[in-house]
Design goal:
The protein contains two helices and 26 strands. The protein starts with a helix and ends with a helix. It is mainly beta and 378 residues long. A hairpin with a 2-residue loop joins strand 25 and strand 26. It folds into three domains: 114 residues, Sandwich (Immunoglobulin-like); 101 residues, Immunoglobulin-like (Sandwich), CATH 2.60.40.10; 102 residues, Immunoglobulins (Immunoglobulin-like), CATH 2.60.40.10.
């Protein structure tokens, strides 16, 4: 180290005495920098400038970064010694790198051009090369939202993915919904500028959600020429829908299990027990009520309304309880109904019909037995 410094001083003295350049002084190649670097607001970023150098020691080189304002004010950072590594591909020239690290990047830094200046000050005239400069593009995390309020099953809605700080040029959006049904895909880019001059780029994704799409995740992926990897954000779909077809079940004892009938009617005996339950699937929840068929579907006073479910309990059933019972479900996105016919019979009437049915069955059986005999003898 001491020998090298002494050699540099001797050459510098000879240079000053002769007033000419030193033979064999190292040469700096073109200084290159990325024209644009994008960084998420609040993150740190490192800018590099690169150049070639044909000398044997990087101690001769000084690298300094300048922050040049578009309004004319400049700021210089401390000088640093670049890192130089011999590169066989460059004919044994040194490949040198100088770096500038910026912490907590904000949108204010988008107003500057960061220029790398490389010098060899110990020769006369000094050798100096400047890079073209690097612009910092600070952007906010992308936001994904919906337009037009809630997502309603069967209604078209737009998903919006927007990002602040990125320019429309060299940017692309990609949408993906995991586990979704087939959607109508319409993507369009739109660019605007906020009051403070920050660019905003958005992409629209049109979908017609179904009830089964509730809870799926849609992802917006943003690619930009300056990104090392895509930036993404997600939204979980909360699909609202009107009540689906109500389900009516019944049980004939207070402690028994509910059964779903195979048809739309139930026959019960006088003075017996019957409980009807109606349930429905909807989002948001529906109010569910029971009404008994009459001139105006008059709501029954003994039947209480519920949320997505309602029950009606009848003990000591009377003949006048015969009729059609309607389950009515309604929320802000629609309504549905279902009905069941209740027929009340007395025990004697029931026994009579059981006797008739058995008699008919016996007659049919006898007819089947005598038909072959008749065909032979008649």
């Amino acid at each position: 180290m001491t020998i090298e410094v002494g050699s540099m001083l001797v050459q510098l003295i000879l240079l000053l005495l002769s007033g000419s350049t030193i033979v064999g002084v190292s040469i700096i190649g073109e200084v290159t920098q990325p024209s644009l670097v994008s960084v998420l607001s609040g993150q740190s970023v490192t800018i590099n400038c690169t150049f070639t150098y044909n000398g044997t020691s990087s101690h001769w080189i000084q690298a300094r970064w300048y922050r040049i304002s578009l309004r004319g004010s400049n700021y210089s950072y401390d000088s640093n010694e670049p890192t130089c590594i011999p590169d066989v591909a460059l004919g044994h020239l040194n490949h040198c790198v100088s770096s500038l690290k910026l912490e907590n990047v904000s949108s204010d830094q988008s107003d500057y051009n960061y220029v790398c200046v490389v010098k060899i000050p110990v020769v006369y005239p000094p050798i100096e090369r400047s890079g073209p400069g690097t612009r910092i593009q600070s952007y906010e995390p992308p936001e994904v939202s919906t337009v037009g309020g809630a997502l309603v099953a069967g209604r078209e809605v737009k998903l919006i993915c927007s990002v602040k700080g990125l320019y429309l040029e060299n940017i692309s959006f990609k949408w993906a919904c995991h586990g979704a049904n087939t959607f109508t895909y319409v993507s369009m880019l739109n660019s605007r500028t906020t009051v403070n001059g920050t660019p905003v780029v958005t992409s629209q994704f049109e979908i017609i959600p179904k009830v089964t799409d509730h809870g799926i995740v849609c992802r917006c992926e943003i690619n930009h020429v300056t990104f090392r990897q895509p930036v993404t954000n997600e939204i979980k779909l909360h699909v609202t829908y009107g009540p689906r077809d109500p389900i009516i079940m019944h049980r004939i004892s207070n402690s028994g299990s509910y059964h779903r009938g195979t048809n739309s009617s139930i026959t019960v005996l006088i003075d017996s027990f019957l409980e009807l339950r109606c349930s429905v699937d909807s989002k948001p929840v529906s109010s569910v009520i029971w009404v008994k068929d009459s001139e105006n579907y008059t709501e029954m006073s003994q039947i209480a309304a519920g949320l997505n479910s309602s029950k009606v309990k009848m003990t000591n059933i009377k003949p006048e309880d015969t009729g059609t019972y309607w389950c009515m479900a309604k929320n802000s996105y629609g309504w549905r109904n279902a009905s069941i016919w209740i027929k009340v019979e007395n025990e004697g009437h029931t026994r009579f019909w059981i006797f008739i049915i058995r008699l008919v069955a016996v007659a049919v059986f006898i007819l089947i037995l005598i038909t072959p005999i008749c065909l032979v003898n008649c």
